[in-house]
Amino acid sequence: xxxxxxxxxxxxxxxxxxxxxxxxxxxxxxxxxxxxxxxxxxxxxxxxxxxxxxxxxxxxxxxxxxxxxxxxxxxxxxxxxxxxxxxxxxxxxxxxxxxxxxxxxxxxxxxxxxxxxxxxxxxxxxxxxxxxxxxxxxxxxxxxxxxxxxxxxxxxxxxxxxxxxxxxxxxxxxxxxxxxxxxxxxxxxxxxxxxxxxxxxxxxxxxxxxxxxxxxxxxxxxxxxxxxxxxxxxxxxxxxxxxxxxxxxxxxxxxxxxxxxxxxxxxxxxxxxxxxxxxxxxxxxxxxxxxxxxxxxxxxxxxxxxxxxxxxxxxxxxxxxxxxxxxxxxxxxx
Length: 334
Known about the structure:
Elements: E1 7-17, H1 24-32, E2 39-46, H2 52-57, H3 60-66, E3 69-75, H4 80-87, E4 93-97, E5 104-105, H5 109-119, E6 125-134, H6 157-161, E7 172-175, H7 176-182, H8 196-206, E8 211-221, H9 233-254, H10 259-279, H11 283-296, H12 301-313, H13 316-333
Parallel strand pairs: 1-2, 1-4, 2-3, 6-8
Antiparallel strand pairs: 4-7, 5-8, 6-7
Helix pairs in contact: 8-9, 9-10, 10-11, 11-12
């Protein structure tokens, strides 16, 4: 295959996996169950220390019998974005998806998204809805982890960045040619956080993304998973800092230079800094974040004064019981 020449109609599935011995089979079975005829599965093992590679090897004949491509890439343990980079050089499909290793696709998930893009050539990507389920019982969860947001919106860069809509990776399908026009070296920025921000934000800055109003992707909820593991203060602060660095790099990739957009990114950082400062009662940092929010126009002078009063003047039962409710409302507002 010549550089950046893609096989018409083929869908490339790039999935990073780390210590997925107990859950990987469900994802691979859901790929094998797809109604779509032309799929290549690129599974990247991020240095697993359990039996993940053995499970993966056990699927070679199944994929061959199904007529699907199947590649296992073994890499040293780093992070999810590095693992994705291990798979991107092998993508040959016209379309690209990157589901998580512990989730699942409905049988018609790939076919319906490809059909949409075929019949709507003006779009370079599309997404579906998802549902959440208990990984142990299979029961549907009552509440999703992410907001759906305004499903009529197609310009999603700010909605994704500001958490007004979902970033659930397996819901999105991108056209490979457009994606690799952004990343011609077939490498996304590598951080210990993210993967979906790197994949989606530069793409959404350039292209509109409509939503198919069907739940085509299932998200497993597992206690003890990486995303649900409690972090220490040091780990959480590093995570926040890494996300800021990542978003700065994404802004450079997107060539975001206009003052209004730069201010909006600064405001996004300040909102996050304010929340974590409140959580760990870092009053000096909280004041600095509030000043930044005030400069951004994201909260009024009156709201800033109220926050300072709460932080410095209210103690005892009111602070322990009432303030968390107020803080939650303020966080939702900002």
